[in-house]
Amino acid sequence: MAGSRVAHATLKGPSVVKELCIGLALGLAAGGLWKMYHWNEQRKVRQFYDLLEKGEISVVASEE
Questions:
Q1: Alpha-carbon gap, residue 38 to 58, rounded angstroms
Q2: In the prediction, which pLDDT does 12 show?
Q3: Which segments of the chain have a pLDDT < 50?
Q4: 6, HSE (Cβ side, Cα atoms, 13 Å)
Q5: Domain ranges of the chain
Q6: How far is 47 from 15, CA to CA, in rounded Å?
Q7: Phi–psi pair at 16, nearest 5 degrees
Q8: Angle at Cα 9 formed by Cα 15 and Cα 20, nearest 5°?
Q9: Which residues cross the membrane (predicted)?
Q10: SS3 14
């Protein structure tokens, strides 16, 4: 029986371009989520001050 040949995967080092692309994609995704969170918080604050200015809400506790 002659030696049987099995195809083995050759191990290579990390691909710099692939690593940069993955890092860029993850960074943009995380940055987009962070930015959407801040836009949402800014919208809530703006809505609060608009209601406060219109007199629909008050920050002073009512005494009853």
A1: 24
A2: 77
A3: none
A4: 2
A5: 15-56
A6: 48
A7: -65, -45
A8: 10
A9: 20-37
A10: coil
3-state secondary structure string, 19-63? HHHHHHHHHHHHHHHHHHHHHHHHHHHHHHHHHHHHCCCCCCCCC
Please state the pTM of the whole predicted model: 0.62
pLDDT of residue 2: 57
If one counts every other C-beta atom within 10 angstroms of the C-beta of residue 53, the result is: 9
Sorted by sequence, the CB contacts under 8 Å of residue 38 that are 6+ apart come out as none
Q: Are 59 and 52 in contact (CB under 8 A)?
A: yes
Contact 57, 51 (CB under 8 A): yes
Distance CA 42, CA 47 (A): 9
Q: Taken in order 20, 23, 25, 27, is the CA torsion positive or negative?
A: negative
| Spatial distance between the Cα atoms of 49 and 45, rounded to a whole number of angstroms | 6
